[in-house]
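COURSE: Structural Biology Practicum
ASSIGNMENT: Worksheet 4, Part C
STUDENT ID: 0417
INSTRUCTIONS: Below are two proteins. For each, the amino acid sequence is given first, followed by its structure token string. Answer the questions at the end about the second protein only.

PROTEIN I
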Amino acid sequence: MKHAVLRGSVVPLLVVVTSVIIVVVILQQSNVSFEAGWHHNLPKVINFPPHGAKISSKRSAGVCGTPRECPAHEISFYIHSGAANVVPPAICVQNKLVLGTALNNAGGGINIVILNGKTGEVLKTDHYNMYSGDVKPFIELLKSIERGSIVIMASYDEPSTKLNDELKNLIAELGSSHIHSLGYRDNWVFVGGKGVTGKSTFEKHIKSDSATNKYDGWPELIGLEGCVPKFPE
């Protein structure tokens, strides 16, 4: 009788232990899938640290992300914004870096690359200090952009303090939907064009919010990549 009772107790116990092991394995697999998906969706240039962590200025290989091949009538691009005031933005065209740290042509404020919209040739790269700089040259540049040009922009550090109505309207004319709501230390990336109709779908914007910022006083870095149509010949 004692042996019968012992066997009767062991069977439920084994069922419970087996169930616990199965649940643990499922949770571990779910966590791995989540982490893989999370890192897969991040720009490959920088790993986001937890809230309040220090940012490293060291960069990994592959600054332009995974090489992208677009149809002949489109131009590939890759952009990421700056991270706080430590890691500058990067802009790549046809899998080649055209603005970034390695070229010493990125800076605080709004960074810009202008392309020939028919060929993808880089016509201009520059950056404009939107905190304490003179924005008149930026206004003049935007007014001088020829129809049929593709315009790529990325924020770094502080992009909005001197962003007046004239600048906002000029950038909105290039297809931006978010420029009028760009605020202090927000992150923003954008691809538009001179002479396009409607609003561009190539735009990302994240507000700076002390409750959700990844870094001290700044939101997380954001990236955008894709194929933008060429202007017709």
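PROTEIN II
(use this one for the questions)
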Amino acid sequence: MQVHYTESKREDAESSIERPKNIDKPRAFTVWRKSSMGFQGTDGFSVYDDSGRLAFRVDNYSRRQKYLTKEIVLMDGAGKPLLCLRPRIMSLRDRWNAYEVTECRKKQPNSKLFSMRRYSMLQNVDKAEVSLAKLEDDNKAKLVPGFRTEGCFEKRSCKIYNCNGEEVAQISRKTTSNASVLLGNDVFSLVIRPGFDSKLVMAFVIVLDRIR
């Protein structure tokens, strides 16, 4: 999905997507599946850009059953909340919904940004699909096809495509600087193509980690 600005306020999922400042080349991130404020028995994410700066983070959350997970908040490197992810408890395909931070303050948020779920109910199927919320003429939100994943996230070998078949991002194993040592699965590479929102892609990665 290409990202464009308009002068008027966008009232669908795209309203939260910021156009990247450097859109002429892919952006490379190193994702560490560990909170920068880690505590034993919890998980999180620390995401660094190619300059070594902390770009995104997810602080501690439990990997217990999803019905015990209220929400997961994606923040920027300084700790500013960007969006929140909530599991849909009664879902055979591990559906997660994404909301603006202001919506998450409500007990029953009603304006989701996107919904992501496993492609199939079969547990051994690695594909996932993303539907974006789009406001219709009757002022009601409708979910429309947005993105899909191919490959195996658990093996850190997968790609994300938009609904037009364009490659959005690639997830791969990380090696040391001299490429002599292949690092473990807790550290991996995320490369995002020009014109796509890194915040949105990172949210997809978090959900992939939860539904695998």
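ANSWER KEY EXCERPT:
Q1: Residues 198-211 form the longest helix (14 residues).
Q2: Residues 87 and 96 are 4 Å apart (CA to CA).
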